[in-house]
Design brief:
Layout (H helix, E strand, L loop, with lengths): L1 H19 L7 H14 L2 H6 L5 H15 L3 H9 L2 E10 L2 E8 L6 E8 L2 E5 L2 H5 L2
Antiparallel strand pairs: 1-2, 2-3, 3-4
Amino acid sequence: MKKIITLLLVVSAIACSNESSFKRAEDAQDAGREFIRASLDGNYDKAKYYMLGDSTNRYLLERWKSSYDNLSKEEKDKYKESDIVVLDLHRENDSVTSYKYYNSYKKDTTTVKVMLVHGEWVVDMKELMKMNK
């Protein structure tokens, strides 16, 4: 009986530890940085935590993940080693901030929106769709 209880406690701790190990973003800059760093590192569970959880964002993140998964180990390492260079952090209003950046490896400029939703700062990737049209 003790073994079963111990096993259940261990499984519960593992199941709860994944998302709860991520620290809530304190502001728009924090949310953007955490999301981008997680994406560059290939940590898509963490990126998802800092992302607005609607169907469009989940789809876009899955596309990013798929592209990342197809990279060589060397290229993944270069992304992991790259720095985030913030070009512009523009507060549009109390709940929306535009976060324009590039990474020091590829230097492609990217803009995402960071939004305050239900008291939490999260990244909205839909700005990427506007840029690709």
